[in-house]
Amino acid sequence: MRRVVFALFVCLIPTARAFTQANTGTIKGHVRLSGKLPGNPIIRMGMDPMCAKINAGKRILQEYVVATVDGSLANVFVRLQGNIPQTPISSQPVVIDQRGCVYAPRVVGVRVGQVLQIKNSDALTHNVHGLSGKDNSFNVGQSAAGMVYQWKAKNEEVMLHVKCDIHNWMNAYIGVVTNPYFAVSDTTGTFQIDKVPAGTYTLQAWHERFGPTMKTVTVKAGAVTTIDFTYTGNEKSMFAVPEIHVAAD
Fold first, then answer.
1. What is the pLDDT of residues 147-204, one digit of tens each?
2. I want to staple 237 with a disulfide (CB 3.0 to 4.6 A). Which of 3, 54, 200, 211 is the partner?
3. Domain pair 23-83+185-242 / 88-178, same fold
4. pLDDT in tens, 88-137
5. Within 13 Å and on the Cβ side, how many CA atoms surround 124?
6. How far apart are CA 143 and CA 65, in angstroms?
7. What is the CA radius of gyration of the chain?
8. CATH numeric code, 23-83+185-242
9. Whole-model pTM?
10. Distance CA 120, CA 116 (A)
11. Is the CB of residue 34 less than 8 Å from the CB of residue 71?
12. CATH class name, domain 88-178
C-alpha cells in the first residue's frame, strides 16, 4: 500500500509544476484617468486634538483620487472573474494600519478565508467598522496603540467599505475574492497579476470614485498579456463620494 501511495504522489508532482509554470501567464496593465484631474480636500484633523497633534505641521489630503499629472491612477482594485482553478489560501495576513488617523493602505485585496489584520499604531482610540452587504460586517473598538483585530471574510464582496465611526474621514476598501488573481494599481497606475492559468476571462477594475469597469482578457501560457483601463472621470461609484472643487496639490 505504501508503494502505491508513493507512486501516486510522484505522478502528481509534474501536474502541479505544469499548472504553476508551463500553463500560466502574466497580466500587466495600466489604469488612467483621461478627464480633468479632480483635487482632494484637506482633512480637518482639528476635529480630534490628538489626531491634530500626531499630524502637526502636515497637510493631509482625503485621497479620493490619487493620480499623476498624466492621469495614471492609483488605488484601483483589479481582479479576474470566471471559472478559474483554485490555489491554496496564503497563510500570510493582509494588513491595514491605522497610522496618523488614516487607513494605510486605502485599498487592499484579500481572499475569502484569508486572515486580514487591522492594527492601531496610534496612541488613541479608533473604531473599525466594516459595512457589508454580504454578511462580512464587523464593528470593533481599538483603544490603544498596538491592538490588532483579526478577521476572515465569509463571502466574496467587491468592495467592502471600512470606516471609523470616531473619525469620519477615515476610509478603506477591501476587495474580497475567492481566487488569488487580483492586484491594486500603484502610484504609477500599473498593476500585475502573475501565474494566471491560460484561458479567457473577464478582468474587472474598480475605483472608489469611478466604480467598476470590465474587459475581456485572454491569457496565453508563458506569455505576458497587456491590458489597460481608462476612466473618463464621468463614472460614478456606488459609494458616496462628495464632489470636489479644490485644486490638486
1. 999 999 999 999 999 999 999 999 999 999 999 999 999 999 999 999 999 999 999 9
2. 211
3. yes
4. 999 999 999 999 999 999 999 999 999 999 999 999 999 999 999 999 99
5. 15
6. 30
7. 21
8. 2.60.40.1120
9. 0.87
10. 13
11. yes
12. mainly beta
